[in-house]
Amino acid sequence: MTLLYLRHGQTDWNARGLFQGRTDIPLNETGRAQALERASELLEHQPPIEIIYASPMMRAKETAEIVQGVLGVPIYFDERLIERDFDSLEGTPIVAGLGEEGLARHGAEPFTALHERVKSFLDDIAARHPEQCVLAVAHGNVGRMVQYCHHGGGTVRIENGALGRYEY
Description:
Number of helices: 6
Radius of gyration: 15 Å
Shape: globular
CATH superfamily: Phosphoglycerate mutase-like
Mean pLDDT: 96
Strand order of the largest sheet: 3-2-4-1-5
Helix content: 40-55%
CATH class: Alpha Beta
């Protein structure tokens, strides 16, 4: 399976550098333009994308629907792709270096829980679509977990509208 991973387009909270987590924020105009630009690029992708899976959260759903409007392939929404829960940090400025202990003190979803649900999603789609090209549209922390699962550790920040490719 070829997995293409697309982080949703920009929101106003992304532009302001705020934790979003499970707060359901829509795309802003920049985010919609990012999604449309990426959709145009994906139209030429080889192998062609055959199916889209997306987080049901507003910002990822809208990004996925913009892409689907260009590609014309089926789209399915999967709860396992929702963003990490940052609890009391949501709506506050992102602070670098909090680490897992700092996040836990604020009630964030544990790393292990995020890992478990993203790994479950990856295992399922690899089994369902072994010879297909699949696009997953979701969030920054979900994308970092895809990196972590694929590479066995180590992740880098994924910008809004950025695309990654993974072979399974």
